[in-house]
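Hello forum,

I keep getting stuck at the same step: I have a sequence, I want structure tokens, and every attempt I make locally crashes halfway through. Rather than fight my setup again tonight, could one of you with a working pipeline run this one for me? It's a single chain of 75 residues.
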Amino acid sequence: MYKLLIYDEGSFFAAHRDTEKADRMFATLVIVLPSCSSGGELIVRHAGREAALDLRPDDAGEAAFAAFYADCVHE
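Reply #2:
Ran it on my machine without issues. Output:
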């Protein structure tokens, strides 16, 4: 693990690619901890394709996750 980021209400990050922080880093794992929330869609782009991932849990006790290769643009 390299870094833990916590985003508060209304926070977001601009579209970017992750830079390698450690030797052999090849992917990013996003974990959404159990909470009551709204919004927070994750958009991942690669090779002309785009996926919009709604990581909001159906139940406040559920966690969600997404993983993608480090060369993907995401926001």
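The chain has a mean pLDDT of 82. If your local run keeps crashing, start a new thread with the error log.
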